[in-house]
Design brief:
alpha/beta; globular; 7-stranded mixed beta sheet
């Protein structure tokens, strides 16, 4: 069985799904079967909530300060399990901060507005901005919603900011410096924090 919970650089991560509407040119999952202490992050079948709950019950969270929903897929592709898992984990360990690393396409994936539901159980939302305009975004993410994804991602981010959560937007340092600066401006206009991720480090 593949890993549902794993650690990377001292952080604790949830691998809820392998489904994703993007096939990003720089995606870490193209590098191998797993990262961190995980042996395998490719699921043979998508985990059920019962399997995720069992993994939570078996894991030692006593020293964990933050848990991150990330893994080898887009967590909001398993939105119900994401929400249930976050609620369950908070009921056991209310002191743990929960972060979602997302491509921000949850509304398109699920066919409805989702920010309020997500922000009700997740403390920190980190959205992959990737590139500062729709055409470049589609090219680098190779998503299944061309022409729609970029605007949907920005709206989702703004909705999360409006909920009052800690919201961040990120780009990977494979794009030109001028596009990084344009991305920073977009992020600041939405009221989110901005971070440049290292492709070499894989995060």
């Amino acid at each position: 069985m593949s890993d549902i919970i794993y650690t990377l650089d001292g952080g604790t991560y949830f691998n809820l799904t392998n489904k994703c509407p993007c096939n990003c040119a720089f995606c870490i999952r193209s590098k191998g079967e797993a990262v961190g202490n995980a042996k395998r992050l490719w699921h043979d079948t998508e985990p059920t909530f019962e399997e995720i709950k069992a993994a939570v019950d078996a894991y030692d969270f006593s020293e964990v300060k933050e848990a991150v929903f990330c893994g080898y897929g887009e967590p909001t592709n398993a939105l119900d399990n994401l929400l249930k898992t976050a609620k369950y984990l908070k009921s056991l360990y209310p002191q743990i901060k929960l972060r979602l690393n997302t491509n921000g396409l949850s509304d398109l994936i699920n066919g409805r507005e989702t920010a309020k539901d997500i922000c009700s159980v997740i403390d920190v939302i980190s959205v992959s901005l990737n590139d500062p305009d729709s055409e470049k975004y589609d090219k680098i993410t190779r998503n299944i919603f061309p022409g729609k994804a970029f605007d949907a991602m920005l709206k989702f981010t703004g909705d999360c900011v409006a909920c009052g959560n800690d919201v961040r937007m990120t780009v990977v340092d494979v794009i030109p410096p001028e596009d990084i600066e344009k991305s920073r401006i977009i992020c600041e206009q939405l009221g989110a924090k901005f971070r440049v991720r290292s492709f070499a480090r894989g995060r």
